[in-house]
Specification:
Alpha-Beta Plaits, 18 helices, alpha/beta, Rossmann fold, globular, 39% helix
Length: 463
């Protein structure tokens, strides 16, 4: 047998895989699925975008079906570092579980009201996906019973530790250990340093450690460093963006102030940008990610902390505005490009004081990052690449029973706009989003202003 057929998954999951057009496992899935499905504790070092969510999703749901749980308590718990990753993991698990009856997969994370989440726990979910802080809060209020948990997943465990969730994770894992002794614990991390090894040794039982060689990934990423004057960094970023004209790019900065200043300058130059930094409210942060993923902005400027745990597909270009202090962080940044067999470029800007760091990095890498002069790079305002779409937000969502089909139908049928002009449609609890080609934006806004959708007026605005 080949493909996913070799794993003898339940018929419901095989049907879901066929629906989703997943026929061949990735190298990461091939390396870890046999051990995951056998019930072993497994620790996997794998980069973001390697297919790990599908791997542990199949494990969790296959066990759920085979054990035919009554559903009085959650069967599995998945811990993630950020709200965005928790939402993405929930969505992927929901797609996989579509053929499994009465399988509720519930996201629980901070930054939003607690009461609705507590209300949703009245009917026990099969799988809970959440951030450590919010999960700890809910358990401490005796509103989440862990006694039925059979599988625990620590997704991007290194990021959870980096973001200061060590105490919360210890508390949750200790509470889980006190409730049940039969938990299969799966740990996924982009790096496997001392803290992750200690976490594995403390909470996993004779874990199978799987370290995946990322030589194949490195082969798809070209790296280069440009030496620039300290006062020319902003200009050089703009020059790189007009020279390479990426459809998507992430610029990593060290501080929130750098993010803000660079964002203001690039916006003034005419680039369609979004920013991610720690001072942003969750609502603004979610909008920024939605715009970037929906091809409504092609440049994201972010700090490392703000960008951790994001589920964003491969970008064409990564720019390190300033070299990172740590090789693991550099590797994480660079790993945002060159995924899924696509070629990617990672550029690091350095000045005289940064060269020592780069020399240190090169001594630890299999291939040196070459250094070039940035003096020849020129910014050309007439070469700025505009995003494919404009984002429109609607003041209605799942709570108002709004669906993707409702939005698409209103635009294409009532507005007589071609479906080719419509991009990503995203439905939230109270808000929804649609990406629209520039030529149709005015007409779409007019539709929501003058027409009813499902018998109701829905306010819409351009983001």
């Amino acid at each position: 047998m080949s493909g996913f057929n070799q794993y003898e998954l339940c018929s419901e999951l095989n049907a879901s895989l066929e629906d989703l057009k997943y026929s061949q496992p990735t190298s990461t899935q091939e390396a870890c699925l046999p051990d995951l499905l056998s019930g072993k504790d497994v620790a996997v070092e794998a980069k973001t975008g390697s297919g790990k969510t599908l791997a542990f999703g199949l494990t969790v749901l296959n066990k759920l079906v085979n054990e035919a749980e009554a559903g009085q308590h959650p069967h599995s718990l998945v811990l993630c570092p950020t709200r965005e990753l928790a939402e993405q993991v929930t969505y992927q698990l929901q797609l996989l579980a579509k053929r499994i009856p009465n399988t509720k997969i519930l996201p629980l994370y901070g930054g939003v009201a607690l009461a609705p989440q507590l209300s949703s726990l009245r009917h026990a979910p099969a799988v809970v996906v959440g951030t450590p802080g919010r999960i700890m809060d809910i358990i401490s209020q005796s509103r989440l019973d862990l006694s039925g948990v059979k599988t625990l997943v620590l997704d991007e465990a290194d990021r959870m530790l980096d973001m200061g969730f060590s105490d919360q994770m210890d508390w949750i894992l200790s509470a889980l250990s006190a409730k049940t002794k039969t938990v299969q614990t799966l740990l996924f991390s982009a790096t496997f340093g001392g803290n992750i090894k200690a976490l594995s040794q403390k909470y996993q039982r004779n874990a199978k450690v799987i370290v995946l060689d990322d030589a194949h990934t490195r082969a798809f990423i070209d790296q280069v460093a440009y030496k620039v004057m300290p006062d020319k960094r902003e200009y050089t970023v703009a020059a790189l963006l007009t020279e390479h004209q990426p459809s998507s790019a992430i610029v990593f900065c060290q501080t929130r102030i750098e993010v803000k200043n660079l964002a203001e300058q690039l916006a003034e130059d005419g680039f369609a940008i979004v920013q991610l930094q720690g001072e942003m409210e969750q609502f603004d942060r979610s909008n920024a990610i939605t715009l970037f993923k929906g091809d409504c902005a092609n440049v994201m400027i972010a700090t490392d902390v703000a960008a951790r745990g994001l589920d964003i597909a491969s970008v064409d270009l990564v720019i390190n505005y300033r070299i990172s202090d740590d090789l693991d962080i550099h590797t994480h940044r660079v790993g945002r490009t060159g995924r899924a067999g696509e070629k990617g470029l990672a550029v690091t800007l350095i000045d005289d004081t940064d060269e020592v760091k780069l020399v240190s990095f090169n001594s630890q890498l299999s291939e040196d990052i070459p250094i070039k002069s940035g003096q020849a790079l020129r910014f050309h305002s007439n070469r700025i690449k505009n995003p494919a779409y404009v984002g429109i937000q609607m003041d209605a969502g799942k709570k108002q029973k709004l669906s993707k089909g409702d939005i698409l139908g209103a635009i294409t049928k009532q507005g007589k706009i071609s479906a080719a002009d419509i991009g990503t449609i995203q439905i939230g609890a109270q808000k929804s989003f649609v990406a629209v080609k520039l030529r149709s934006v005015r007409r779409v806004l007019q539709i929501f202003r003058e027409e009813k959708v499902k018998g109701k007026r829905i306010r819409a605005r351009k983001l």
